[in-house]
Amino acid sequence: MTSEDIHQKLQAQFGDRVRELNSDAIDPYVMVEAAAIHDVSDYLRHDAELQFDLLMCLSGMDYGPDKTLGVVYNLASMSHRHKLTIKVEVPREGGSVPTVSDIWRTAEWHEREAYDMCGMQFENHPDHRRILLPDDWEGFPLRKDYEVQEFYHGIRVPYTEDPPGVGMEIYRTQDQD
Questions:
Q1: Which of 20, 73, 121, 124 is most buried, with most CB under 10 Å away?
Q2: In the chain, how many domains are there?
Q3: Where is the NADH:ubiquinone oxidoreductase 30kDa subunit domain positioned along the sequence (predicted)?
């Protein structure tokens, strides 16, 4: 099935909750209303003609400080050998997306990473907490308006602008000087 065929099938099932298809992109994608992502995902997984049984990746996106956040779902069907990318957008503050971790188990960790790095909230997620950073870390490092904190528990956090090795003084010993 082509991405156009899949888009038509989704629009027939979900109407205007499935928005435009961008087939000019390297990976064609379909925009879906955030509140509908669980229903659309369940349909994509279980419909006999679609059978998207593999969530290859789920990524959090920040489109800019004055813009929305987004979640990108890269899907594949192993039996039908077709792929599809789904995108949803949510407000920077107070927006949320229903979890798809009950549809694709791997989404549980992907959603935690999107939360940890970008701040997306996933409704009904079974374990909605940070996965890469400490629980008390301030902010979300992949947001474009993120400001790196200078210290974390008294330890200097290396900045990306620092030359290599700067900020790593705590790892040097007197013998190395």
A1: 73
A2: 1
A3: 30-151
